[in-house]
Amino acid sequence: MYDAIIVGAGFAGLSAAKELIRRGCSDILVLEARDRVGGRTRKTVVGGLAMDLGGMWIGPTQTRMVALAEDYQVRKYETPIRGRNILRITGKERFSEGDDFESFFSLREKISLFRIEREIRSLSKTLSSEEPWRHPQAQDLDSRTVESWIAQMTKSPRVRQFFRLVCFSLFCAEASQVSLLFFLHYLKSGDGLEPMLSSGTGSAQNFLLHGGVHQIAAKMADELGDRVRLESPVRRVEWSEGAAQVYTDDACHEARTVIVSVPPTLVERIDFAPALPRPKKAFHARLAMGSAIKYCIVFETPFWREQGFNGFILRDDVPCAPCLDVSPPGQPKGVIAGFFDGDHALNHSGLGMDARRAIVLRTLADHFGPRALSPIEYVDVDWLEEQWSGGCYGAFAGPGIFSRYGENLRRRVGPLFWAGTETSTRWTGYIEGAVRSGERAAQEVADQLLSMAAVAK
Question: Is the CB of residue 229 less than 8 Å from the CB of residue 29?
Fold first, then answer.
């Protein structure tokens, strides 16, 4: 009998395993459905460069990821933002320096933005990162969408559209689909709205990793050795207090505890016996996964820099924005990464890579000229088609869900414990959140095993 079985070898599951071993619990097993580790991070080689087709950025306040990069001697580099960005919203286009957004807006629009950001800070002040559903106005906030709230806060069409693009970029979903309470929780778990949107110093997109973030997951798995078993989807978990039987297609494994670290919308694919408590099932059934297609495109050189651009494009009239320069320094090639998000991902999912490539190239050529039509290579991944993710970047709550069922997010059920970036109280939805969630679940399991050992004596 194992001390713990971990379901899922994404960053949450791998971090849980690593932390359990650090705490002296080495008798563990990690079961991964995919033929690889890393979860919602994914390696690609495009134009001869190892890049990420999943999560790829880290920020300086994402301390667990910074520490892992240092531990595994993976060098980081700053996201290139020197030069002019390109913003086009509601027909207005403007260039501004670096990652500056404010100069795009008129004075009246800036005042409107200031009022909204001030209200976000005010509401967030009394929001607990541990229990956002206990906010004094939780039910009222949860009854609204970001769309309805922004419509109340401003009459400016451009400011409203900007926040729709914010939801696209953060949740890969429409502003009309995201609960205001969940939106505020998400911002509070990070460092606020501006750092989450920025690529500059101190932001969530401040750094990239030479060779990609996916290699950290691979290095973690290498350390765990044969404790990690790939292509082993968990189909059924039979549990009682203090024990569980975990069934894959070809084996049954026993453990004293289980950490479930799969995306929350996929929990329903596992047959639990006895069934999970109804509020827990209701919570998972009502969450939705973001819709995203991520692309990387490589050119002989980052020629847009010669024109004074930094490669960042944010537009509301094309389906393949935002995109930005992610070119690794120390080599000559230029790399642009970008996204089809939200409804754009849904509407372009069935078109195929060649059709999406043509859309991306036309968009880049609009701004950078005909050289953008001749890349070395284009590649993308449709995360909607990923069987063991079901979407990206993460799960989000629509109205009426978080205040009613949110307390079930991390709550232990018998020997079952819960990890995954959505369960993190810090940097929810980011790789950092996944790592922190795994460490937290491992601590809970270690405490439980000590308690069980004490009772056995």
Answer: yes
For the purposes of burial, counting CB atoms within 10 Å of the CB of 57, is it exposed (0-12), middle (13-18) or buried (19 or more)? buried
Q: Could you read off the pLDDT of 259-287 as tens digits, one per residue?
A: 999 999 999 999 999 999 999 999 999 99
End-to-end alpha carbon distance in the chain: 18
Separation of alpha carbons 356 and 364, rounded Å: 13
- Angle (nearest 5°) at CA 213 between 210 and 218: 110
CA distances from 283 to 171, 265, 419 (A): 18, 9, 15
pLDDT in tens, 143-195: 999 999 999 999 999 999 999 999 999 999 999 999 999 999 999 999 899 88
> Phi-psi bin for 194: left (phi > 0), alpha (psi -120 to 50), beta?
alpha
Q: How many residues does the chain have?
A: 457
DSSP-derived secondary structure for 374-427: --SEEEEEEGGG-TTT-SSS-EE--TTTHHHHGGGSS--BTTEEE-SGGG-SSS
* One-letter amino acid of 5: I
179 within 8 A of 123, measured Cβ to Cβ: no
Peptide bond into 430 cis (omega under 30): no
Q: Report DSSP state, residue 132.
A: G
| Amino acid in position 266 | L
Could you tell me which of 387, 447, 448, 427 has the C-alpha nearest to residue 205? 427
